[in-house]
Amino acid sequence: MSFKNVEIKKHANVYHEGRVTSRTVMTEQGEMKTLGVMLPGTYRFNTQAPERVDLTQGQCRVKLAHQTGWVDFHAGQSFDVPGNSSFEIEVTSLLDYVCHFG
């Protein structure tokens, strides 16, 4: 996956005491994406807009809000999170990802 003619925000998005970091990328078409890394651990995130998370490296399991079970994901797979929601993610090995918003 590659992105051409993008603007990259210099300020890093840092979460969970630096164990999750990302950079915001704006495409020529006005789409917002983040490119990030998560270290092993369990995290909770709230969403505003719908998100699709593409995993490019690593493994994790995800539990969306209002779900009782966890679902396993690995590099090459994606998961979707509704807007105005939340999810928990347990990262089992260094996770590299691209998050698409909207």
Architecture overview:
It is a single chain. The chain is mainly beta and 102 residues long. The protein has a single domain, classed as Jelly Rolls (Sandwich). Helices cover 0% and strands 62% of the residues. It has no helices and 9 strands. It has strands at residues 7-8, 13-15, 20-26, 32-38, 41-46, 51-64, 71-74, 78-81, 86-101. Strands 1, 2, 3, 4, 5, 6, 7, 8 and 9 form a 9-stranded antiparallel sheet that branches. Strand 3 (20-26) and strand 4 (32-38) form a beta hairpin. 14% of the residues are buried. The model has no long low-confidence stretch (mean pLDDT 95).
Question: What is the CA-atom radius of gyration, in angstroms?
Answer: 13 Å
* Largest sheet, strands/sense/barrel: 9 strands, antiparallel
Element-level helix/strand string: EEEEEEEEE
Question: What class do helices, strands and sheet pairing give?
Answer: mainly beta
Q: Helix share of residues?
A: under 10%
Residue fraction in strands: over 45%
CATH top level? Mainly Beta
Number of strands: 9
What distance separates the N and C termini? 19 Å
Mean pLDDT: 95
Globally, the shape reads globular
What's the total helix number? 0
